[in-house]
Amino acid sequence: MSCAAPDQTAGIPVGVDVSSQAVVQGKVCKNNEPVGGAFVRLLDGSGEFTAEVVTSPAGDFRFYAAPGSWTVRALSRVGNGQASGDVTLGLNQLDITVA
Question: From CA 52, how far away is CA 57, in angstroms rounded?
């Protein structure tokens, strides 16, 4: 048994019904290049920390959240950045460019 965050991949895992879940996913990039190993934090509408994952080597991240206003913030060795959006049921793409 592992306490680590699940692997972040580009595809939704088999068995996940996105019609009944709000999925926040995206890619962290700098100069159009993926940033692997970035820490991505999920913040709720009031700015409170909710969860954190580490991006895959391809810069991918994913969270399962309730519908509402969310911010994703990336912290990496090559820069920081964030994106926000109103999340609904289904797939919600929030890509982050770090500077």
Answer: 16
